[in-house]
Amino acid sequence: MMVKLDVRVKLLNGQARVPAKAHSGDAGWDIFASEPCEVGPGETKIIKTGIALEIPSGWYGQIKSRSGLGARGLIVTAGVVDSGYRGEVGVVVVNGNRGPEGSFTFRAGDKIAQMVFLPVPEVEINLTEALNGSARWHGGFGSTGA
Fold first, then answer.
1. Within a domain: residue 135?
2. Which string of b and e fits 23-41 if b means at least 16 CB within 10 Å?
3. Widest CA span in the chain
4. Which end of the chain has the lower number of beta carbons within 10 A, N or C?
5. What is the CATH number of the domain that holds 33?
6. What is the per-residue pLDDT across 50-78, written as a single tens digit (0 to 9) for each?
7. pTM of the predicted protein model
8. In total, how many domains does the chain have?
9. What are the angstrom distances between the C-alpha of 7 and each of 52, 98, 110, 116, 139?
10. Type and span of the H or E element at 70
């Protein structure tokens, strides 16, 4: 059964754009810059979107990198928009490039990220003295050879 989510969007300035999908089957909704911004090599910046969201309780918006920008070294990080948050959505980006040629310049209206809406399960955290075993056990970073 397909769930239809009603997400309300408020435009906070004249340059803001409503999130949009390029294709009907896409998982992510494009998020746009609402003002010019330059992200220099090695910099981390918050790019303003000029939008506020009302996401239904039990859901959240996850902000992810756009594949084309990610392939060029721009990575989106810290991308959780909780259902109770009503402030302006900002996109935290890290420019992984080095050197003077690695800057990213965005204009108002440029696509900067994408948002996927996901359910939030009810979770109960239980303190314990021991955990059940598993085939992986303590295998962590690099434990599978990759």
1. no
2. eeeeebbbbbbbeebebee
3. 56
4. N
5. 2.70.40.10
6. 999 999 999 999 999 999 999 999 999 98
7. 0.87
8. 1
9. 10, 38, 22, 12, 40
10. helix 67-70
